[in-house]
Amino acid sequence: MASSGLQIVGFLLSLVGVSATIAATFMVEWGKESQAKHRTYDGLWMSCSGTSERATCENYKYLLKLPIEVQVTRALILVSLFLSAVALIVSILGMKCTRFMDAMPQSKVKAAVCGGGLFILAGVLTIIVTSWYVSRMVEVNEKAHRLQNREFGHAVFVSWAGGFFTVLGGVILSLRRCWGFSGSSESISTNQLLSTAKSNYV
To answer: Where are the transmembrane segments (predicted)?
Structure first.
């Protein structure tokens, strides 16, 4: 029961991480640029510009004309979300609280571990590409005019948090293999001791 509870905790943590990553993907505040009272917010899918009182937003029309950091970040975030979707399906098949693959306990454990590994890969990918985006923002800001202040926005922190929780949940799901094998080995050794004791008594 305890191991099943830990699996649920790991799965829920990963689910929270994936949800945060999805939210960050559609947030418009990945990059901010301010010049006097005029502000511009750049997301992965659209940009907004205007003052603090009124702003207008517009979707990106031409992918190849976007900055390289936006193109790469958007592509790798989508890859991370695809891996997370596969991990969700595989993890559900391998969790002890579900009835899938009950006839194949070893395969069920491997499915949970595989799902955890995919969560880890997706979370690490999100953290890496978000950190790279931030480094690009810092580099651009250093080369920008003094009147222009370009920096990263709130979506970056949401993306970092999403990657962290996804990795944490994946680690918990992956460690389940060790606990599962140790538990099964302990039960096997206990059965062997009981059978040996019975044979000696007879």
So the answer is: 72-93, 113-134, 154-175
Domain ranges (residues) in the chain: 1-28+64-179
Spatial distance between the Cα atoms of 63 and 67, rounded to a whole number of angstroms: 9
> What H or E segment, with its residue span, contains residue 42?
strand 38-42
Please give the backbone phi and psi of residue 101, each rounded to the nearest 5 degrees, phi first: 60, 30
**Which residues, other chains included, contact 14 with Cβ-Cβ below 8 Å and sequence gap of 6+?**
84, 87, 88, 91, 119, 123, 165, 166, 168, 169, 170, 173
Q: Which residues contact 44 (CB under 8 A, 6 or more apart)?
A: 25, 26, 30, 70, 73, 74, 77
Show the tokens assigned to 109.
């454990």
Asked if the 1-28+64-179 domain carries CATH number 3.30.420.10, the reply is no
Confidence (pTM):
0.77
Q: Tell me the per-residue pLDDT of 15-50, one tens digit each, with 9 for 90 and over.
A: 999 999 999 999 888 887 777 677 788 888 888 887
| Tokens 């943590």 sit on residue | 13
Which residue intervals of the chain are DSSP H helices?
Answer: 2-26, 68-94, 105-143, 154-201
Structure tokens at 17: 């991480």
